[in-house]
Amino acid sequence: xxxSPARHQTKTVQMTVFYCLMIFTFSCASFNKHTAASRPVAGxxxxxxxxxxxxxxxxxxxxxxxxxxxxDSEQGRKADESPQTTVTLTKGxxxxxxxxxxxxxxxxTGQSLRDKALKLLNDETLYDFDGKKMKERDFMHFDKNDPxxxxxxxxxxxxxxxxxxxxxxxxxxxxxxxxxxxxxxPAGYEYTLPTEAQWExxxxxxxxxxxxSDGSLDDIAWxxxxxxxxxxxxxxxxxxxxxxxxxxxxxNKWGMHDILGNIWEWCRDWYGPYPGGSVTDPTGPKDGAYRxxxxxxxxxxxxxxxxxxxxxxxxxEDSAYRGFRVALSAVRR
Length: 333
What we know:
Layout: H1 5-37, E1 46-47, E2 57-61, E3 64-68, E4 85-89, E5 93-96, H2 102-109, H3 113-121, E6 127-129, E7 132-134, H4 136-139, H5 165-181, E8 189-192, H6 196-204, E9 264-270, E10 277-280, E11 291-294, E12 311-313, E13 322-323, E14 327-330
């Protein structure tokens, strides 16, 4: 029996729809598999796929308990490093293995270091600095017409500097939005600055001494006694020095490079006293005048290059000695 033309056409349409659905199903499965494979997985390192193949490596930091702060016997310790406090972090998190670089900053924001410095110098906004309303360039004693005087080198592998706490948080929010839009953000996590406890926990990496190394400070940190050695290009101070390419010094056992030295790093917390005793997932005081930064810089002395050392600065302040590293952390409101 011959099939009628109309019936044959109907069957052809049905088969075409069937094959299209099969192709769509396999394509979705392939896409979902690819997306799942390109998301951060707890317990494993993660490299954010930024534009232009710009690397952004992050190490997994496991949950755990440590002693935050320093004992009275530690050389160079300061009063605000006590009382020592037992801290439990109940969730693991990712932390960038280096400070945010100039290249990474450009890949996320589209802004160069020079653009950033010029914006700072030409900003007419009055900010609150130590209770006084001032333009930032006046607070920092910068000459509006001489950007080169305040800048060192501008290479992509250098840590991004001249970043205020507010701008560092804006960077993290932008990165969070971009990664959420691409479907690569784990549920309940966001890109942000590490809390002070997360920073010190990752810096110590299970150690309890002044630094995470038993060797020379020169092996792990760029600081005032070595940052000028072999330095070339534009520099700050005399002898001239400046931020150095990230990752050149030895990392700790959790993969953190330059977490001591090179550039001070903003933390999320307001600056305030430690509570003492035992605490869980601390996020610092509810408010304050200063934000915490940690780790010392290329212009700091050896006593600043300690795991327990703390510093405080106004959240609007930009400096050639200060930058940040990014955490991918469970959301805490």
